[in-house]
């Protein structure tokens, strides 16, 4: 019995020792794991907060693409790049009438050059496409008809000179009572006839196209038969229809010239709009692609309607001093016929597209920053801005494409 009680006591003591050992091994481990998980959660929270803070900083001053910032340029760089700044302000938006048209030659500055004499072409000095000045020699023609006219003029000029000399001598002798009055009067008559004959011969040369200065400087020799065909106006040679050695007459155009610094546009205008168009009105002209633009003025409004289409006809004069327009081009015109209400607007040249959104480069303390804008009506080269820009803002009115290129260049370098 004593032995059995001893074993029960030993088993009870051993179980208590094992329970105590397990208790001390389990709880410290649990506390450590809990601390580790808490620290890890704390670090994740800090990282998420830092990430959110960085995202907030990135959103500040972003362009529509999410990466763009202001472009900084000095005053000298702005000027060299053709960038001009304007202050946004309310202004009337023009009412316009949009009409298609085609560029044609200005008939007042076009010339067809014919030879006033018959003869043979000895020299051709102008080619198609050449630009010539008024009075420039286009070709040299050899003509028997001209040779005879020149000879008659030279003979008349010599007879007039002789008659003047004779008259001067006879007048002196008559005043000294040496010569008879009859001789003096005869010399005076001969001089008058010689002068008439000379003027007649000169008029014949002028009718053949010889200038008075060329006629008066005329000398004898082979030059009597050579005629210089000259350009009547300054302009471009559009057509040449003669060749070396060709026989020409006075009824065939040899050259066609045109001054392309001014062109015309003939427009067909609906009857309801004719009364709103006046001489001198401004007209905005653009090519079909919208890449080339310019300004013209209404030259005249045809007082009668077209019998076929019952529309009015308006002619527009377009300045082409820079040579950017060509006769035959199809264009779109905008005739300014009035004014609409006051709106905030910017010129077409101020707008650019970034990430599919319309932007205007607005000046701030950091430089010129792209700002997304919402657009409204378009009229005569101006675009209404509904939002994104306010009165008083300074923005790039011209040269905005340079700013866009600089912006994209900076982004490309950042990515690399």
What does this protein structure show overall?
This protein is α+β, with helices and mostly antiparallel strands. The protein folds into 4 domains: 1-60; 75-91 and 341-415, conserved putative lor/sdh protein from methanococcus maripaludis s2 fold (Beta Barrel), CATH 2.40.420; 97-106 and 260-340, Efflux pump adaptor protein, beta barrel domain (Elongation Factor Tu (Ef-tu), domain 3), CATH 2.40.30; 110-258, RNA polymerase II/Efflux pump adaptor protein, barrel-sandwich hybrid domain (OB fold (Dihydrolipoamide Acetyltransferase, E2P)). The protein is 36% helix and 34% strand. The strands form 5 sheets. It has a 6-stranded antiparallel β-barrel with strand order 2-11-14-13-12-15. A 4-stranded antiparallel β-sheet has the order 3-10-8-5, with no helix packed on it. A 4-stranded antiparallel β-sheet has the order 7-6-4-9. The longest helix is centred in the first third of the chain and has 58 residues, at 2-59. The protein is elongated, with a radius of gyration of 47 Å. It starts with a helix and ends with a helix. The model is unreliable at 1-7 and 18-63 (pLDDT under 50).
